[in-house]
Predict the 3D structure of the following.
Amino acid sequence: MTIREQLAVRLRGLGWGGGLVRDVLVIAGATATCRVFGLFRDVVIADRFGASAAYDAYIIAFFVPHMLRQLLAEGALSTAFVPIYTGYLARGREEADRFASVVLSAALILFPFVIGLGAWLAPWYLPFLASGFSPEKLHLTVSLTWVTLPFIGLVGVAAIFMGVLNGQRQFLAPALAPVLFDLGLIVGAWPVAAKLAQPAFGLAWGVLLGGAGMLLFQLCFLRGRLHFAFGLELGHEGLRELGRMMLPAVVGLAGVQVNLLVDNKLASHLGDGAISSMQYAIRLFQLPLGVFAISIANALLPRLSERAVSEDLEGLSRALQRGLLLGALVLFPAVIGLYALGRPTIELLFEHGRFTPADTARTLAALNFYLFGVIGYGGVFLLSRAFYALRDTRTPVAVGFLGVALNVGLDYALVGPLGLRGLALATSVSGLVNMAVLLGLIGRRLGSGRELVAPLAERLGKLFLAAVAMGALVFLSQRGLAAALESRFALVALPVLIGLVSYPLFLRLAGLSLSRLEEREALTRTRA
């Protein structure tokens, strides 16, 4: 028996035989809970700040720690950590604990340095990020940045905890951890902000409170799962491999941040509230991605890594097909439903307090163009996990740079004639192109792109038609109810209920159902 075969046997011995759908539902359920709290957070912020200059300043101030969060924590670090940690688990828990301890020790040294450097340079890089801000607005942005920067240290350590738990297929706690971040921001935006001369500082302090909550919450679930011993072993094989895997991922994620940077920079010239409106639209755009696409990707990565370790490319291809099909099952109706209910949803969630009807119109205009890209970015989340499982982070990075160049070029071409809508459309087109290129490359890597995609074509078509039928019914029902009801809640909740009931019926009419997909997965595992 080869070493890889022995590793595969050990991985199966860890009890990793559960269904993908089950794990996706666990993660998606927890993530949906987080998104509910996230929506409540945004409702509170909209009520207290609206689409205002102060909220614009906070968004730019939090851009830097959030960017570092993606580059050095939950983005590159956690994703690269899981496949390596999975391999060490296959050898034994002691080696896995040692690897995790080395990574944590390095993080405790690195993050304070990053925070100090970011605070020192803030007065120089922020004028570039928000070149359209007035001097007063820029001064507020710098002050808010100094408060929010320590967040990167808190969330960086929390990301390692998340990697350990996900590597052991304990998905619930990491998926629920963002609730603590949302609660921190809610406390900051509401009671704390009310007691401050500049309420925006309440949001900044809420960021730190939420980051500490995420860290402590996951720490509670690590009891008995991680035995930490501080040791700065810079020569550790796993740490060097983590660095090699993270470097291209960091570069690739930096490309994504360049897109956001350019969007914010251009939007800062569109007047007070433009960045805020774009942010509210992005929140709704990210809702189906955060609940479903990322949940599927997180549940899929350990399965893909297991098959990659045992060199089972056929099994990896089947698992990836499964993930893509599940992604389409939920993203198609989510996107079409948001198109049908965009305006009443924004009115329900945000249009109160300091959020005006003009803010609603501007947010809706951006949202409609962002929604084009949901399928693209959902596909990128899933397809990139296949490359990560194969220990290849360079290919998604190279493709990501293609998307960055396209996005930035379209930003400058479209912002003049279309304003915020142009920035949103550029983002969507970039995501769709990125997905198409990754799909072609992973298909060739696994043997044949046609063999990867062709078996899904018929079912994807049926899923899309079922989602369109559901969307048409939801739209017509909302229009009919609007003539008889005044309650904003009812004008959203009743059409959503109609969609939830009708979509499974349309799936059945198309010859598809979740139970049949489960049966297909069981057959796949049996053959494997």
Observations:
- Residues 24 and 299 are 6 Å apart (CA to CA).
- The first helix runs from residue 3 to 13.
